[in-house]
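Model: You mentioned two targets. I'll fold them one after the other.
Researcher: Yes, keep them separate.
Model: Target one:
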Amino acid sequence: MPLALYALAAGAFGIGVTEFVIMGLLLDVSKDLGVSISAAGQLISGYALGVVIGAPLLTIATGSWPRKTVLLALMAIFTLGNLACALAPDYWTLMGARVITAFAHGTFFGVGSVVATGLVAPNKKASAIALMFTGLTIANILGVPFGTWLGQAFGWRATFLAVTLVGVAAFAIILLLVPRGQAAPEKSDLRADLAVLGRTPVLLGFATTVLGYAGVFAVFTYIAPLLTEISGFPEAAVSPILLVFGGGLIAGNLLGGKFADRWLVPSVLGSLVVLALVLGTMTFALHSQTMAVIYVGLLGAAAFATVAPLQMWVLEKAQGAGQSLASSFNIAAFNLGNAAGAWLGGVVIANGPGLGSVTWVAALLPLSALGVAALALRLDRNSERLAPVAVCPSAAE
């Protein structure tokens, strides 16, 4: 794999820390800024909303730029946004800084996916995407726990200052390692790009991503109460157990990329089936502490085994004009799934059937995604069957 992919992974690492570290600092932020924990929790929702809005807007705005320039500009936004978070004097300034920082997220992964696939041979494209996303998985294993410790020891602003330094380092690595020759995109026609988003296969690809990842976050958002209230772990055990989740993320991410390189469609369908099975059977596994730990790792593996196949599938459906825009929209779809899953899990807990049912309800979502993917494949087969067949002139004679 070329060194440029590791530069993209460095950027992904910084973005991953920024997105998730706030979860471990909610108490510190709420006390320091004088807001409730639920208000502090909206900083997570604000970030997700920034990703959903920012991905298409920034991708359209930078559509005619060289892709290396786009990546550098996004890392600059990311770095300045984190510096603004560290210096925010009040809650709403922090919220605004979080949203601005999130604008870089979707476009970075969207454009980065296109750049990554252009750096490798055709049979390694999904693995290239997976390698870039490895930065995100390592952020969950190393960056988030370290950032949480740093914030609790020296104040939450210290964490955002540290992430600012990560952004500076990632900017420098991308500047040095991503080749300029890969950078120039084809001339962009906004109408043609938007028309790609209206293609039925692309829309069904987005829907598959939203439903699949909603299942993951319906459970992961509430993993701490699941482990403490159902499995009976003490609160202090949750962080070490989440390291198992992080290990699963890395394994699933790399395996998903390897399988998708060889069998893209079976990988999309198979990863959704595995995710549904893990979520469904986790309902029973949580009642045993040993099985609960094993299943946390399996959940991480199943969750990220879907990422590279789904991203590669959408890229293939959007072949030609609008590929960068479609790729960014699919990153926004992942985040929309995060928000929808967290909301659904909350509804199940608050209004019934309760915390113990979150896992099997969540399993219905990747099953729904499987149905949408099957519909997309059926439409593909029908369109191929109805496509006009070119007749060779000599044969006609």
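Model: Target two:
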Amino acid sequence: MSQHQTPATTSGRKYQSINFSGKFSLINEQWAPKTIAEMNDYQFKLVKLQGDFIWHDHVDTDETFIVLEGQLRIDFRDGQVLVSQGEMFVVHKGVEHKTFAESEVKLLLIEPRGVLNTGHEGGERTATNDVWI
């Protein structure tokens, strides 16, 4: 650990930053978000993806996509948006969408605890929730 990464302590509590590269090195599969932190009822999840996902929506919540590496396309029934490295996009609740990445993309997702990656669609692409790395 470098001196900048040394955990500080206060009242027996350990403080340590989260390193995205280190966490991504623990992810071997695609389309399976892994939780790295929580804030109130929201989870911060890292995910690798490539190819085409399924059409779905999230009836009760918005979903934030922050591209850390690569370029993500989010398709909507009436258009699309490209989200490049260093950019973010919020898909509002109830809006049907489908993600696509020609090359591997590394994302940070922010969404409430318990949200399934496939919404109410289910199927083989539904990832296990609340998997921490």
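Researcher: Noted. Anything on target two?
Model: Residues 1-5 have pLDDT under 50 and may be disordered.
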